[in-house]
Design a protein that fits this description.
The structure holds two protein chains of two kinds.
Chain A (H helix, E strand, L loop, with lengths): L2 H21 L5 H24 L3 E4 L10
Chain B lengths: L7 H15 L3 E13 L3 E7 L4 E7 L12 E10 L5 E10 L2 H17 L17 E6 L4 H13 L4 E6 L7 H13 L7 E6 L4 H4 L5 H8 L5 E5 L7 H5 L2 E3 L2 H8 L3 H62 L1 H6 L4 E4 L6 E5 L4 E5 L7
Parallel strand pairs in B: 3-5, 6-7, 6-8, 8-9, 9-10
Antiparallel strand pairs in B: 1-2, 1-4, 2-3, 4-5, 11-12, 12-13
Helix pairs in contact in B: 3-8, 4-6
Classes of the chains: A mainly alpha, B alpha/beta.
């Protein structure tokens, strides 16, 4: 599994959580500025991570033209 | 052989040896008639054309597609003379041929699988939004695979993709794909999605994906399946039993992973939206503060007005009590002694007079 990609997902989950906070009942202006800065930072990191990630594609060695051992 | 005397059994055995040598297998094309299933295990039918007819016999489990009278099929078989003296073809495999029969076989199998509930919506499992480990079954030499790989690389990153190379058309293809499905389903760590793709082709090319054992293998996969076979208009049993059907291999790639550019755009939009929430909250707070200040100012003004009003009232009262006001109304102030002979000072509004008291009487 890709650790980097998992981190992107974690960041996306965290960002979604922050967005929910802004839309929820717990929103307060006092805490909003700090959370907004965190959201901005996360978004920038997600964008950066997504642009640099590569897929790892491998063709399995197993042959399927006869019964698998 | 004129002078060789054979028993009937020897003759049958010798004939079968000769047939086996001459025709280890024989493929015949013809139309099915008198199709019968015996005891749920065996099938028998006649294969005929305009000029001849032969009997065919085999096991139900050798049929990879349902058969019906009138269908045109190819039978791969071994000719045999049985102990009762009847010539039969022992079926090794069979498949429908010709557009009409392929379609008929498809419809029969579709009805059978539908009756078992294999296409039911409640069986369908959702695919993860952003999978990290996927398995792909396809021909790695195909243009479809090249397109699929290019698109997932353009759209997403960080994926671990395991690819099983199999044939995707022809007789061995279905069994190869089934083996690959079993291979991935037998892994200790299961991939999150099993993708099966093949590009477009003729009805016969795509017939692999209407194979009953393959359809059942896809339906029973522990790994959620995504099948993209042929073009948009092609519908195979494989994609009907899959958890998710993609219209084409390209569409399968687009279904499998999100577009990173879309995620970036969505992320920016999310941040903008929370920025707007903050700005709206600031504006609301500003308005609330302004309203509170305006209220305080209004209440202060009202208080001042009330004080001014009281001052005005007091001033009026004071004005009423002013002695000069009384003098202006014609009255006078007397000062001095009120005894006879005493002097009195009389102050009017305009004058001050001095006079002497000449007489004093009580009232």
């Amino acid at each position: 599994m890709s650790k980097v990609n998992k981190t992107v997902q974690e960041k996306m989950v965290e960002l979604n959580g922050l967005v929910s906070w802004f839309q929820g009942e717990e929103f307060s202006l006092e805490a909003a500025v700090e959370k907004f800065e965190t959201a901005e930072k996360l978004a920038a990191e997600i964008e950066h991570d997504l642009q640099k990630l590569k897929n790892d594609i491998t063709v399995v060695k197993q042959r399927f033209d006869r019964e698998v051992a | 052989m004129d002078d060789v005397l054979l028993s009937v059994s020897d003759f049958v055995a010798l004939t079968n040896q000769t047939l086996e040598f001459a025709y280890p297998t024989v493929s015949l094309v013809g139309e099915v008639s008198e199709y019968k299933v015996i005891q749920g295990k065996w099938v028998s039918f006649k294969l005929k054309d305009e000029g001849a007819v032969v009997s065919c016999f085999g096991s139900v489990f050798q049929l990879r597609t349902p058969v019906q009278d009138g269908m045109k099929i190819v039978v791969v078989s071994q000719p045999r003379l049985n102990q009762k003296g009847y010539f039969t073809l022992n079926i090794r495999s069979l498949k429908p041929v010709g557009e009409g029969s392929i379609k008929k076989g498809f419809e029969l199998l579709k009805a059978k699988l539908a009756a078992e509930g294999l296409f039911a919506a409640e069986r369908k499992r959702a695919l993860p939004r952003t999978p990290q480990h996927v398995a792909v079954i396809t021909s790695t030499e195909s243009a479809a695979y090249a397109d699929f790989s290019r698109i997932i690389n353009e759209r997403w990153g960080g994926l671990q993709v395991e690819v099983a190379h199999t044939q995707v058309q022809g007789d061995p293809a279905a069994d190869q794909i089934i083996r690959a499905i079993n291979y991935f389903n037998g892994q200790e760590t299961l991939p999150e999605v099993l993708v099966i793709i093949r590009g477009g082709g003729s009805a016969e090319d795509l017939a692999t994906f209407n194979d009953e054992p393959l359809a059942r293998a896809i339906a029973s996969s522990r790994i959620p399946t995504l099948v993209g076979v042929g073009h948009e208009i092609d519908h195979s049993l494989a994609d009907m039993v899959a958890d998710v059907r993609a219209a084409t291999p390209t569409h399968a790639a687009e279904t499998l992973v999100p577009d990173r550019q879309e995620i970036v755009r969505a992320t920016r939009t999310q941040v903008e939206s929370v920025g707007n929430i903050v700005l709206r909250a600031i504006e609301q707070q500003r308005l609330r503060t302004k309203e509170a200040l305006d209220g305080a100012l209004r209440r202060t003004d009202e208080h001042i007005d009330r004080i001014n009003e009281r001052v005005r009232g007091l001033r009026l009262i004071l004005a009423e009590l002013d002695p000069h006001q009384v003098l202006r109304r014609g009255y006078a102030l007397l000062r001095g002694s009120t005894k006879v002979g005493g002097q009195l000072q009389i102050e009017t509004a305009t004058q001050i007079l001095t006079t002497e008291v000449k007489d004093v009487k009580s009232k």
